[in-house]
Amino acid sequence: MRIEDLNELREKQLINGDQHHHVGRIITKEIFSVYYELRILLYLGVILVTTGIGILIYKNIGDLGHMLLIGVLSTLTATCFWYVFKFGRDYTDEKVKAPTPYFDYIVLLGSLLFISVLTYLQLLYEVFNDGMGATTLVTAAFFFYIAYRFDHVGVLSLAVAALASFWSISISPQKWYSGDFVSESNLYNTAIIFGVIVACAAIFLDKKRIKTHFTFTYINFCSLIYLVGALTGMFINDEDYFLHLLAVYAGCAGCIYFAHLKKSFLFLLYAFVFGYIATTFLIAQLGLDDPWLWFMYLKASCGGFVFFIIRYKNYFKRAE
Amino acid sequence: MRSAYNSIWLYNLGIVKEAKTWLKSGVISAESFNLIAGEYKSGFYHPNVMIRLLLFVATLIGLAGVTGILVLMFQDALDEIGPYLSIVYGVGSLFILELVFIGNNNHYKSGVTEALLYHSIAFICIGASSMFGFQSSESELYWIFFVCMVVFSFSAFRYLDLISTICALGCFAYLVFFIMYNIGGIVQQLIPIVFIAIFTPMYFLAVSLKKNSAVHLWNSCILVLEVLSLIFIYAAGNYFVVRELSVSMMSLEIAPGEDIPLAFVFYLLTVLIPITYLFFGIRNKDVVLLRVSLAALAFSVFTFKYYYSLGHHEITFTASGILLLAISFYLFRLLKTPKNGFTRENVLHEKWAASNPEAFIISQTLGGNKVTVDESFQGGGGTFGGGGSSGNY
């Protein structure tokens, strides 16, 4: 926006003098925020440090320097947590505004460093007897605690990912596109159950009005895990696909419900994409092999869908 | 020629979108926002980004169905007059877009419009290319890219489309590169200099256009031009780009101990261009320069590490991470009270910044530290690659 446009708004009495002054200073660059730039630097810093330390631990495991390394890491972790406990605000069920623009990243760095220390100790001294499973569970529990204590959605998403990986469901980008997200036998059923349980927990917390702004992250993860799981189940058991087909439809219904509830159209997209794949699969299974009919199907389904959204655009607009 | 959309509505939509960021940042109240929205009306159908994506996907699938039927119907004619049919089909879709969706139903970047637009661009370009016989000779290849560039420029201009803008500039850069490449000899060595010579005026043109109120409708396209010009200037001077392209395309052989011709110039440019960007970004409070300079700086560091690495990536990662953290904490502390107008506070919401996507990016890029725990311990190495820059631009 140019300053002339802003003046026009002021002349039409649509904004008051204070608002004009506030926005005007931004437009004329009298004040210039570097908030996002600095946050991106912080984010890159956290990525580099934690990645570097991860490799450092991996390469030097068993070397003489490990006591030193543990010492340094523990000190860093302790510093981060000293800071966040000293300056952090108290816990409430509501959204908490961070006291400083960089507070979130100290929480994040501290949590990740803590996990590095934990992993290192586990490898050296086997703190938990049954190996990696327990470590993952402890990691998840720790992340959940931090996420709720300091109101950190990023750490919450790490917690959900850690919890999923305890059940051997791995949700990292590599797994998404390489498609071996649930290649193991019956892991797709685990994914379905996991998705349902997490969704129930999230809805329960939401109804209790505890950190309602966390609900999106929960539902995002569990709907993706659930839908991918159900779809994989459907493709793998192509003799006996019907149950998983119903599961996909149920998941889509859940997504649509949630989209209405939270006015979040991302879930509508999930429901459409997964539902469409499942329906197309069903039609293929039912023995449609005439190319002409396939074209008609493609055309009619998508045309109908576009028509539906545009026809009811007022509904979608209102809900935005 | 002008934009396909109603320019008053576009202007009003721009104002309302801006007001929405004020609303989200708490500058104005909901009542003021409603007043503004009531005063600056626009009749466009312009849904939010998710609906747009949905409509885009659905329209593309539907169009694939239509194309399939037409292919079946005209199967016999395709061998003879295929290219012409393709062009006719593309232009026809463009007319449908223009008359039915933009004209009658007031769609503006609704997902349907993009799908139809790319669909018709694809058919026009494919038709034109096969008329030239695809890759028979170099001069025909030039023509293909020239036609694509014209089609993309048209679409960028008439439909204010950003992806078309990017593609048009890409075609242009490709044309310049290949014409010079095919002349051969000394001209090949001049490619970086010519790129800098072409895109520097282009950048200043974009900057001056941004101030011109007559073309304010195209502001986002101009922004794309601005950013891409900066990137092309940087890439043309970057040692890594020049060296790798010289080796792979101009079959330059570099013996150990030797270097590419004029290497020192490119070393210098690799360092100087990002610093220049950063300097002017800070001095003029130019957010575009500032952000491009940060990305360019990161790439320059990578360039030097690539050729002069000591082999301890983990130490580099950790050290540079600590350095970045230190710099940013220092700047945050420094700007606790605004200095020369620079402030650390978030004065206006960026429309792409929200905590939920940020959380998703964090989980997908930083999760490695703990997921590796149950995979016999591979360190966080794998998580580094894709994560860094993808989420931030």
Lay out the secondary structure.
The complex is a heterodimer of chains A (320) and B (393).
Chain A: H1 3-11, H2 17-27, E1 32-33, H3 35-60, H4 66-87, H5 103-125, H6 132-150, H7 153-166, H8 173-178, H9 187-207, H10 215-236, H11 242-262, H12 266-285, H13 291-311, H14 313-319
Chain B: H1 7-24, H2 30-39, H3 49-73, H4 75-104, H5 112-131, H6 138-159, H7 162-183, H8 186-211, H9 219-237, H10 239-249, H11 263-283, H12 287-307, H13 313-334, E1 342-343, H14 355-366, H15 368-371, H16 381-390
Task: Write a structural description.
The complex is a heterodimer of chains A (320) and B (393). The two termini of chain A are 23 Å apart. The radius of gyration of chain A is 25 Å and the shape is flat. Chain A is built from 14 helices and 1 strand. Chain A has 320 residues and is mostly helical. By secondary structure, chain B is mostly helical. In chain B, helix 5 packs antiparallel against helix 6. The relative contact order of chain B is 0.06. At the A-B interface, helix 1, helix 2, strand 1, helix 3 and helix 5 of A face helix 1, helix 2, helix 3, helix 12 and helix 13 of B. Strand 1 (32-33) of chain A pairs parallel with strand 1 (342-343) of chain B, so a sheet runs across the interface.
